[in-house]
Amino acid sequence: MKDNQVMLPTLPPWPLVDPIIDRALEEDLAGGDVTTDACVLPETNASATFVARSELVVSGLEVAERVFARVGGGTVTFQSRVPDGTRAKRGDQLLHVAGRARVLLMAERVALNFVQRMSGIATLTQKHVDARPSGSKTRIVDTRKTTPGLRILERYAVRCGGGHNHRDTLGSAVLIKDNHIVAAGGVRAAIERARAHAPHTSKIECEVETFEQLDEALAAGVDVLLLDNMDDAKTADALAKIRAHQGARAQAGASVTVEASGNITLSRVRSLADLGVDVISMGALTHSAPAADVALDLRL
Hints:
Layout: H1 14-29, H2 34-39, E1 45-52, E2 56-57, H3 61-72, E3 77-79, E4 87-88, E5 93-100, H4 101-130, E6 139-141, H5 151-160, E7 174-176, H6 178-184, H7 187-197, E8 204-208, H8 211-219, E9 224-228, H9 232-249, E10 257-261, H10 266-275, E11 279-281, H11 284-287, E12 294-299
Parallel strand pairs: 6-11, 7-8, 8-9, 9-10, 10-11
Antiparallel strand pairs: 1-5, 1-12, 2-4, 3-5
Helix pairs in contact: 1-3, 1-4, 3-4, 4-5, 8-9, 9-10
């Protein structure tokens, strides 16, 4: 891959995605489609186009294709799909499908639901990515605050918007949060137990809310610090403490990754990136993204 090429996000494998699609279709078609059966002759053919009704970042078109394929099998054809991650303008055509009109109508709502939801997440993510200062290496990252059952698609949508993913599951990384600290009896105890029991490949991340917890985590040799609900002034002070501590560890080649989370707004992204945090994580990318305005226009 050339240096100036952008690697497109990869959709999760179909064995993981198909059950999500099938559940959505079962939910919508459990009683059949009375209206379509009554109004549309079985032999009627049609084509349809997904159209952006506002500016958006595209995500979920492959999933939409899969929805039509699950309903109509090999009777549906596709053409001219733009890649997920594309920035679209109002009126842009995103995907063309053709086949039996009954199939297109039965699959329409489910296909649109996926595209609208996923494109909405990608669009909101891209706004936060774009809010960083030019040349910033600060990552915009999601959280596990996802819609139950839709996590792999919502996190894929974050990648379509230029963002990154935090840990996928509780088993994929160590993240010591406030209630773990309470249950363990303190920051140091939690970090030391995690270090003793976690796989050797795992870094130890710990959430801190106070400078006392921050000092304790640094003394315990934490790998990643999550600064929780700190405003810009407190974040700056925390970073000064961390950098002073890292100066003492520099000869050993050790460093601490700093993540800011909690009370993150679009307006704060630039200031936090300017301060030098490595990661900005926010649940809003997935739990508060408005659906993108995408329509499906059918014609005979």
